[in-house]
Amino acid sequence: MSYISRVLLTLIGTLALVQLGGCAYSNATAMSGPAAAHPPQADDAIGVMWATDPEGETYPEPGPGRTLGDITLSLVQRRFPSARIIETRNDNEALNRAAKNGVAYLVAPRILQWGNFGSISSRLAGRVAVELRLLQVSTHQLVKTIRYEGSNNSVTLGSNVPEALLDENFADAVADLLRRP
Question: Which pick of 23, 26, 44, 104 has the fewest CB atoms within 10 Å?
Answer without folding.
Answer: 23
